[in-house]
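Operator note (shift B, R.M.): manual run for Integrase requested after the automated queue skipped it. Running by hand, logging everything below so the morning shift can see what happened. Input copied straight from the record, untouched. If output looks odd, do not overwrite the archive copy; leave it for review.
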Amino acid sequence: MHMLQATRDIRKVALWLGHATLQSTEIYLRADPTEKLEMLDALEPLGIKPGKFRPPDKLLAMLFRAVE
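Run finished. Output pasted below as returned.
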């Protein structure tokens, strides 16, 4: 994991570890939460604005009956 973070090159890591294919090394990509967070930080925000939820009267009535 540290080698992948240092080199940022999965091919070099695969060669150094003696993996026959890159698929063997890809498990390190899935296991690194830092990589995932960096990718998420690079994304643009969706621009979704919070709305106001108004539950239907039937839903409120059902919920109130459930807690009585």
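Quick read of the result: The radius of gyration is 24 Å. The mean pLDDT is 80.
Leaving this for review. - R.M.
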